[in-house]
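Thread: magnesium ion complex, take 2
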Amino acid sequence: MTEIQQLKQQLQKQEKLASLGMLSAGIAHEIQNPLNFVINFSKMSDHLLSDLTAIVEEHADLLPEADREDLSDIVDGLKENMEQIKENGERAVSIIQSILLISRGKENEHIPSDICHIVKEYVRLSYHAMRANCPGFNVTLHESYQEGMPLVEVIPQDLSRAVLNVMNNACYAVWEKSQTATDSYSPEINISVAMQDNQLVISIADNGKGMDDEVKQRLFENFFTTKPIGQGTGLGMGITRDIIENKHGGKMTFTSTLGEGTTFTFTIPMSKDK
Ligand SMILES: Nc1ncnc2c1ncn2[C@@H]1O[C@H](COP(=O)(O)OP(=O)(O)OP(=O)(O)O)[C@@H](O)[C@H]1O
Ligand SMILES: [Mg+2]
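Output below.
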């Protein structure tokens, strides 16, 4: 009976997550439009400023020296502000695109993707979700992205989900450890994306609470979770392994030491014959 109860709760949570997913895709989509306005108007204002500068320069001799300098400082300041608005607007668009990717991508379609960009975005999403949900959560992220990586054919919405699942667990593990650790404990997560021997290697290493033998054994079991009821479904790792190994023909491995931390590694072949 308790097992049925638990399964029921898990189903309810899944259902809630599914509708939340729908909702956030809708919101992301709606926010995209006003953001485009922000970006486009800041570009237009930048052009107007250039026109203004040209006119002022043409009649510069009509202005007293001091005013000329003030004017030029003000225009420079405005240009800088426009650039900031545009840059941050574009950053917001890129975040929204990543959210849409998860809910909108065609099922099982492999497309050439910028892996570093995907990983970066999802590391951030996970970090901010955790900060919003867990009081006192903090962690230092060390990220290393190999430069000049070629595009890799992956199913972007699935790969991003895999990264999110592992990142969420890593954040949770350092957060849990920080609840009981001494003050000198400094939560850290190392993320790296690189090419090795024609394979894509993504690794996420935390210095969190680590796993004991039982957890290691049961890690990929569906519904296995050590999180309190309502916090974890115990599906994350099973789904992630399916994504990496079955959908991408790769390998998902991990090492973990109780009390010291855990490292997950995805290895995905670059060649198309997956
Ligand atoms: N980085 C990690 N450090 C320590 N324990 C981990 C780590 N990743 C996973 N685990 C252990 O494995 C269990 C199963 O992980 P899994 O992601 O499948 O489920 P979950 O995180 O509990 O729930 P959810 O389905 O919401 O992800 C976790 O409850 C946790 O005990
Ligand atoms: Mg998880």
